[in-house]
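re: ur msg from earlier - yeah i can do the zinc ion complex, just paste it... oh wait u already did. ok heres what im feeding in:
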Amino acid sequence: MRRLSVALVTALLLFGQASGQNRGISDAEVARVHRSTLLIDTHNDVPSRTVEGFDIGARTGTGHTDIARLKEGGVGAQFFAVYVAASYVTGNRSANRTLQMIDTVRHDIIERYPNDFLLATSAKDIEEAHRRGKIAALMGIEGGHAIENNLRLLRDYYDLGIRYMTLTHSNTNDWADSSGDVTDPNIKHHNGLTALGKDIIGEMNRLGMMVDISHVADKTFWDTLEVSKAPIFASHSSCRALTKHARNMTDEMIVALAKKGGVVQVNFYCGFISQKFRDNDAADTKALDARMAQETAGKNLSEPDRQILSEKLRKEMRLSRATLADVVDHIDHIRKIAGIDAIGLGGDFDGVSCTPIGLEDVSKYPNLTRALLEKGYSADDIRKIYGGNFLRVMRAVEAAAGK
Ligand SMILES: [Zn+2]
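and the outut:
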């Protein structure tokens, strides 16, 4: 009796939720449009887990990414982040870490699951993988210190399959300023890109490696836009006009990048898309840190495991989160100021400890399709946002190579 009533209530709630969201758009329509896209997400940090032994083929329910959820979400191509933490700069261990991260993508993800993934290093490869029903797997380096100031390493990484490099992470390196420490007087800054930084952009252009300006300081962005011969892009960045974070892009930056043919791949992290989240951040972080200290006392958790625990506690403690509607607001803002051709997706899954309600992990992408259809976006618009725009930029970078 009790079980029956729980089931009934659940069914009614689900029905109410679905009919409340529908506004005339059927599940079949959402599925049809979603399936018609080639969904390319340009930033996912699950390699930081696989390098520690996480099996992407196991449905553990932890974190944001595994094969089953990528398929459920209809992800057609995934850029895996070859993330090199700033801490590896000490003792010159950045190249070592970069090679280990490239190995985990190639060995633990692609070679381990050849029926599910196909290594892709070009726009054509992405489409070919999609035709064969596989997820195109690509790699981008996050943190320009990975090349240890040496163009030879940049070329080696290209040969190993790297197709974009984020010029900085949160740390300023020897040739580019980062938004993460640009106001820190203890850090030596360069006022944007140095001469070496400009040479690096030139070599990336020549190779056909995409130049990613997520994380960089504003002046670095403007210098890069000026010197790059190919369009540049942001692999995982959102709008500063909506959410005041130094790592988000101003309207002027978005418009200028779009004018040169680039694309902004919207980041879903709560702290980059919700001003409410940011306003509560100091108090929430204090409460969360206290709980984290209790829960991790005597334990030696890896960084990804800390992130997963922090996300779990945030939910338990009912602290601020963002929602799917916030993601749509950022997409909508870019459309208004720069047009539909300037928008893409770079979720930052498994790189953050807070994802939006409704877009909790890679399986939830169809919810975004529904939300965009409800907002009046056409199927063509959605296909551009999900991958068409990015493929255009990737092709332009390929075409500019060798020159
Ligand atoms: Zn990042």
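cool cool. The CA atoms of residues 218 and 338 lie 18 Å apart. ping me if u need the other ligands too
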